[in-house]
Amino acid sequence: MEDNKPQVIKITFDGIEVEVEPGTTIMQAARRIAEADSSQHHLVPPAMCYYEPLKGSGGKCRACLVKVAQGSAKDTRPMPKLVPSCITQVQDGMVVENVTNPAVLEERKGIVEFLLLNHPLDCPVCDQAGECHLQDFAFEHGSAKTRYEEERRTFEKQDIGPYVQLHMTRCILCYRCVYTADQITDKRVHGVLGRGDAAEIGTYIEKAIDNDFSGNVIDVCPVGALTDKTYRFKNRVWFSKPVDAHCQCDKCSGRVTLWYRGEEVIRVTARKNEWGEVKEFICNTCRFEKKKTSDWVIEGPTKVQRSSVISANKYRADVIKKPDFALKLAASQYKPIDDSRPYITDDQTIRELSIENNNKANQRSLAEKN
Amino acid sequence: MAIKILTEHSHIPGIETFDVYRKNGGYTALEKAIKTMSPEEVVEEAKKSGVRGRGGAGFPMGMKWGFLAKPEGVPRYLVCNADESEPGTFKDHYLMKTIPHLLIEGMIISSYALGANKSFIYVRGELMYVIQILEKAIAEATANGLLGNNILGSGYDLELVVQPGGGAYICGEETALLESLEGKRGNPRNKPPFPAVKGLYQSPTVVNNVESIANMAWIINHGGEAYASVGIGRSTGTKLISASGHIKKPGVYEIELGLSVEEFMNSDEYCGGIRDGHHLKALVAGGSSVPIIPAHLVYKTANGEDRLMSYESLSDGGFATGTMLGSGGFIVFDETACIVRNTWNFSRFYHHESCGQCSPCREGTGWMEKVLHRLEHGHGSMHDIDLLVDVAKKIEGNTICPLGDAAAWPVASAIRHFREEFEWHVSHPKEATLPGAVYKGAAVLA
């Protein structure tokens, strides 16, 4: 049986053919494409909950949904629904549509909107701003307007110890910190409590998260829900300079990134790869205690990555490479005032428009069914 | 008299006890299966019967059993999903409290067929008294040698465990149920792998609804082909329908699939018609999560054919003009029911029950509820109606489990068929917010 299995699998991702090993997920295949050709970086589906080093993560945020236009070479049928690329394994001959499929982009816009419904839009005062995955995701795939008018959900502040600040209101329930505590530390004392949009990260009975590796939850958090108490409000991240350094540590690898403001080390984090993922988790001593240059052996400036805050002009629309499709679409539909919702105040006209839309939707539904 | 497969003996006093059940032909199917049939033959009968999952999805049970992986040295499990919590559905509750032994017998036969030595019945936590009834029934069956080690001298062992749930709707989703059964938070799993490959404790598992399993006794006694001859087309056998709403005789009825909706609604044997002096306005045919249909589509499909109580006929016309049989929660609305308020109520339920794992459902259900609340309370705008349609569309099909779909369908269908009523709430906020106010212009069946 084993011999018959192909050693490499060929898939087509947004028209680009790539060969990967069996067992690879669509997301990993897309990352392989980007790693081979950095100009294709924008093709990689966004990941808000998926975190490659953490086993079992992924599938929750639905930000990385893609269309599988052809299941495999043997079974050429398309998959009926959009599938999460982070946990869907590739099959030989699979054809995946990502930014080439308008439905995928539309859905991604919807996910941004859903994630931002209850997320405070306080980036100017949030410590994560500049290195926030949600900020990047919203900038690249979201719409500038919100249709949400209701009150946002908020939470009571919970104290989880001297090092880590939990700001639950900003949480998008990606479960990464839960997996980290499960897989990196001895004993997990926090988890998800409650249900639905009232679900929250907490320790149930208020308790400090106290172990040598607890600080890693800060690095894995895609938003500003878990931040470093020794660094909070000290600096904007884009004013600091990251430098790779290492030290002798008996608990962890000791390989870190130091963040300088002038001559001062204001923060220590684990090193992240170009997908914003930590490969080597570091201990609390390295992270919180060693804040003098003399504690470290400096290796050199950190290579600035896509997900890094330092890449200049990151949020300038004319510089960022958005998905080609979206750009073309935007160019073709450009109007001086662009709003997806019609600014019509006449109820009768709105009604007619709505009924027309509704009828179209019904016909589509019928056509699909037949 | 229509054929009764499940409720034939339900009227007999004391049928919940072992002795009375045994006297009325109980456990003969178990004897037949264990003494004269091999497990494969039992699976074959289930396949022949064509019985489809009665929990809502309608997936053929025999086929599901056929998917069960059988690696060497790994235990297999059968789990009975008795976490019935869909608004409008109360058939399993009725079946378990009335004839608990029918389920126990079905469980033993099914476990034997699948080669499971430990099986679970996951019962909704609110039904504590039903759990006690089941446990008593299990104790009786064990005392009579029908459960436990070496059942009927065959060498087959089975332990049957009743597990109370915590009262979460989401734990009726099979993978969330398995997580809950393992003692974890009831979050649905990403599929694949499906439970048939990696289910309970990462072992191959079959999860079936109470009613599906209860059918097994009759199927073994009479044969799968006899079962398949009941019903219509691919909707074989009978189905328990939980009828509620504005009808004369609400309750649980066993019908042969293929009965016309009109007969079910109006015959004295079943619902007995809409309550006097009122008219049919809308129907939810299969529990709160299926699309609602307006009066003119209840008895006839869009093509003018008679609408039948079957999987195919109820879903005729797709989502544009059809609905689904679902779990058989038959909720009837007359003209006194406000569709906006009802939709808000359903949506409130899904908001409360979303597990919060994946973003479209966690955020979308709450959003829809808030917008519907606004509409119902006279603060809505025309934009809100389209907004609801759009949000529903963005949830549907993009979530880990079907709860997202279940939350989206009732909203989308209510607006599709009753848009005028939503608009009336926007244009006449004062009238619409009076107690008991209902839009008068909705079409009803005289």
From TrEMBL, chain A:
Gene Ontology CC terms, in alphabetical order: membrane
Ranges where the 4Fe-4S His(Cys)3-ligated-type domain occurs: 103-142
Provenance organism: Arundinibacter roseus
Cofactor(s) the record lists: [2Fe-2S] cluster; [4Fe-4S] cluster
Coiled-coil segments on the chain, per record: none
Domain of life: Bacteria
Record protein name field: 2Fe-2S iron-sulfur cluster binding domain-containing protein
Similarity comment: family membership: Belongs to the complex I 75 kDa subunit family.
Biological classification of the source: Bacteria, Pseudomonadati, Bacteroidota, Cytophagia, Cytophagales
UniProtKB/TrEMBL annotation, chain B:
Protein family per UniProt: Belongs to the complex I 51 kDa subunit family.
The organism's place on the tree of life at top rank: Bacteria
Function: NDH-1 shuttles electrons from NADH, via FMN and iron-sulfur (Fe-S) centers, to quinones in the respiratory chain.
Reactions mediated catalytically: a quinone + NADH + 5 H(+)(in) = a quinol + NAD(+) + 4 H(+)(out)
Keywords annotated in UniProt: 4Fe-4S, Flavoprotein, FMN, Iron, Iron-sulfur, Metal-binding, NAD, Oxidoreductase, Quinone, Translocase
GO term, biological process aspect, one: cellular respiration
EC number: 7.1.1.-
GO MF annotation list: 4 iron, 4 sulfur cluster binding; FMN binding; metal ion binding; NAD binding; NADH dehydrogenase (ubiquinone) activity; NADH dehydrogenase activity; quinone binding
EC category: translocase
Signal peptide start and end residues: none
Occurrences of domain NADH-ubiquinone oxidoreductase 51kDa subunit iron-sulphur binding (ranges): 340-385
Cofactors: FMN; [4Fe-4S] cluster
Pfam families in alphabetical order: Complex1_51K (PF01512), NADH_4Fe-4S (PF10589)
Protein name per its UniProtKB record: NADH-quinone oxidoreductase subunit F
InterPro entries named in the record: ComplexI_51kDa_subunit, NADH-UbQ_OxRdtase_51kDa_CS, NADH-UbQ_OxRdtase_suF, Nuo51_FMN-bd, Nuo51_FMN-bd_sf, Nuop51_4Fe4S-bd, Nuop51_4Fe4S-bd_sf
Natural source organism: Arundinibacter roseus
SMART domains for the chain: NADH_4Fe-4S
